Amino acid sequence: MEIKIFKNYRTAMVGSGLGGMISASILSKEGYKVCLLEKHHQLGGSIQNFRRDGVVFDTGAHYIGGMDEGQNLYQYFKYLDLTDKLNLRKMDSKGFDQVSFGDNGKTYKYAFGYERFKETLLTHFPDEEKALARYIGNLVEISNAFPLYKLKNNSQSILESEYYKISTVSFLDQLTKNERLKNVLAGTNLLYAGEGNKTPVYIHSLINNSYIESAYRLVDGSSQIAEHLAESIIGNGGTILKQAEVEKFIFKDKSIEYVQLTNGEKVFADKFISNIHPSRTFEMIDKEKMRKVYRERINNLANTISVFTLYITLKKNSFKYLNHNIYYYKNNNVWTASTYDPNNWPESYMLLTQCTSGSGEYAEGITVMAYMTYDEVKKWANTTIGQRGAEYEDFKEQKADMLLDFVEEKFPNIRQHIHKVYSSTPLTYQDYTATKEGSLYGVMHDSNDPLKSLILPKTKIPNLFLTGQNISLHGVLGVTIGAVLTCSEILGPNYLLSKIREAQ
Predict the structure, then answer these.
(1) Which of 150, 191, 392, 473 could share a disulfide with 388, CB 3.0–4.6 Å?
(2) Domains in the chain, ordered, with CATH?
(3) Whether this model's pTM surpasses 0.90
């Protein structure tokens, strides 16, 4: 069997998650000959889709923000030739996210636009106008403090901002003494797997600001982003290799010369960008090629928690389509990732109806996500999908029933609308997205020690760069900004940002 050797690439990307695909799209658009390597047969990582009983489900990207004209993700996607190609549905302007608690039965709505956002919450908290005004003012101030979030040149050190050192809980404590209001404002923390006393306030703020500006669902799934990016990469002369799993970076002197694939093939390039978790990247590099202290710091970083997910297909014309997301808590505590106790599971969930071309008045499917640690499934770590045995299947069935019981507190008799229930665990998420231990958002950023969890796109290896959700911020917007940061190390920040701002 002849071993193929791929040469003459200026840049090779390892992993076709959103960060890798956007990096490949940017560089190919700017004239670089690129090669994108993906170990699976499907591109996209967390923006993959799959079907159950004909219903499209998302792996990770359930909705996106900042997509109205003039907003940040809109302009980034305009440069990437995505804005006019995506099939989007705008969410409920009066309450795109809705937070509920089992101990009082009320529903608190997040509305579009800061004035409407404030007025909507004032109906529940009439004495908290000053606190809500301060909250809004602080979110705007924090958003303005991060240049790439506002498409401005980034001249300051990433750690100069005080917002890396303030936890979300301490930030909210400074606003009000009203515990319910604080929990409502933090009620969507599954978007960042928040641990209140650790998660820096900038993560909470940038994510919430983005959705308050505008929120959209991707009709028939987020994989349309990957499909359009792939078309762009190939159209610009790039190469995409699927089922091309990298097993090792091979060096010549102090730089990487090529990557060795598991099938023996070699891909040579001048520069390499890894979109997979930094610790997994470094596992493919000989120890003597990296400083021990740097490798150990990355390997020892804590990662965000994972999830157990239900993918529910529905009986036809049975359950109304919800043009909003539900965040539901057992009681007046939203920081359930940091207080996780398997004996009290589940304590919270996020529920949404699938946005498909067939979902008009009625939904075709429902997704329900509840936090779950990797430790709960660690005993099956050395198994593969479909081969994990009866005990694992019993575990999933038991957990599915427990989560459905909890969902019925908010949606009584939901079981009568169900056609079939499918489920996934942290192991499933790890297998399909290559995130470490099925972590939702990669490395946990800690306001108590921000420097420790800082991962820059440029490494100590001259021609190796990192991208993905561990750089800058996670989510579709965060990963897009991270890819711009990475590509700016190659193209120059002022040049690239100018091109993005000027895109029509």
Answers:
(1) 392
(2) 5-48+66-84+220-301+441-502 (3.50.50.60)
(3) yes
